[in-house]
Write a structure and sequence with these properties.
- The structure is a single chain.
- The protein is 6% helix and 58% strand.
- It has a 21-stranded mixed sheet that branches.
- It is mainly beta.
- It is built from one helix and 21 strands.
Length: 277
C-alpha cells in the first residue's frame, strides 16, 4: 500500500526540523575566549620559563605533584597574551602581553614541581607574589622596574640574580634553602631579605641610592666585604649605624655560627642594615 503526502505538509515538517536544529546549535552565538594557556609535561626533563609581566598583578606557585602539566596560566583572556612553547627534554615557555591587547587582568601562574625549571622574570609597573617552596628551581633571574615583589624561595639549592630599579623586593629563604651564587642589585629601591635557620648565602651586592635589610637568626653569621662605599651607612647588631667604608664587617661570633651569609658589596648612597634575632 502506498501513501501520498501533500507537499505543503512536508514543507512544514522541514521548517520545524530546521528551527529545532537551530535552537539546539545556535551558530550565530560567538564563543567566549579561553581564559587560560597551558603546556603539557610530556617528556620534559627540565625547562626554562620566561615571564614578562607588565602593568598587572601576578602570582606564581606550584601545581599539584600529580598534575600532567608543565605550566598553567590563568590570564583572564587568552587573546590578551603572547604565548610560546617548545616541549622537549629541555622545554621552553614564554608568556608576555599581546602588544595588540590592552587589558590589565591579573595572572595566576602555576609550574610543575616535578622537574628543574629556570625562571626568567621581568616585572614592570606591576606586582609579583611567588611561592616557590615546593618547586625545583635551577635558577631564579628577576628584573623589576617600579614593581613590588614578594618571593618565598625554594627549600633547595639555587642560583639567583635580582636587578631592581625603583622597586620594593622582599625575599624569604626558608629552612632548606641554599644559595651559593647570588647577584643582588638595587637602584632607587629597597630590598628586604629574611633567612631562616641553616640557610647559607654567598654572592655579590650592589646598592645605589637605596637600602637593604638582611634579617637572620642568631645562629647565622653575616660578613659584608665592602669593596667600594660612597655616602653610605651600615648597621650591625653590635655596631650602631656608622659610615660605611671599604672594610670587612661581621656579626658577633661569625666564626662560630652554623650558617653564614657572605656578601661582597658596593654601596653608593646606600643604607645596609643587618639584624640578628
Amino acid at each position: 500500500m502506498i501513501f501520498y503526502v501533500k507537499g505543503s505538509f512536508v514543507k512544514r515538517i522541514c521548517i520545524l526540523l530546521c528551527l529545532l536544529l537551530t535552537a539546539c546549535n545556535p551558530t550565530s552565538t560567538p564563543q567566549t575566549p579561553s581564559n587560560s594557556v597551558q603546556s603539557p609535561l610530556n617528556e620534559a626533563q627540565s625547562a626554562v620559563l620566561n615571564l614578562n609581566i607588565f602593568n598587572r598583578d601576578a602570582t606564581l606557585s606550584s601545581l599539584s605533584s600529580e598534575s600532567n602539566a608543565l605550566f598553567v596560566a590563568d590570564v583572564g583572556n587568552q587573546a590578551s597574551v603572547a604565548y610560546t612553547e617548545t616541549i622537549a627534554e629541555q622545554s621552553f615557555i614564554a608568556l608576555s602581553d599581546n602588544p595588540a591587547g590592552t587589558d590589565d587582568n591579573s595572572w595566576s601562574l602555576q609550574a610543575s614541581p616535578s622537574i628543574p625549571i629556570s625562571y626568567v622574570i621581568d616585572v614592570t609597573s606591576g606586582t609579583l607574589s611567588a611561592t616557590l617552596t615546593d618547586l625545583i628551581v635551577s635558577r631564579f633571574d628577576l628584573v623589576a622596574e617600579t614593581a613590588t615583589i614578594d618571593v618565598t624561595l625554594p627549600t633547595s639549592e639555587l642560583q639567583m640574580a635580582v636587578d631592581a630599579t625603583a622597586s620594593t623586593v622582599n625575599l624569604h629563604m626558608p629552612i632548606g634553602s641554599q644559595a651559593s651564587s647570588v647577584q643582588l642589585t638595587s637602584t632607587d629601591g629597597f630590598i628586604t631579605m629574611t633567612l631562616e635557620d641553616g640557610v647559607n648565602l654567598m654572592g655579590n651586592l650592589s646598592i645605589t641610592s637605596g637600602g637593604m635589610t638582611i634579617t637572620v637568626p642568631t645562629s647565622t653569621g653575616v660578613q659584608i666585604l665592602v669593596e667600594n662605599a660612597e655616602n653610605s651607612e651600615i648597621t650591625l647588631p653590635n655596631n650602631p649605624r656608622s659610615v660605611a667604608e671599604a672594610n670587612i664587617y661581621t656579626t658577633p661570633n661569625f666564626d662560630q655560627t652554623t650558617a653564614k651569609v657572605i656578601l661582597t658589596s658596593t654601596l653608593i648612597g646606600a643604607t645596609l642594615r643587618i639584624i640578628q634575632e
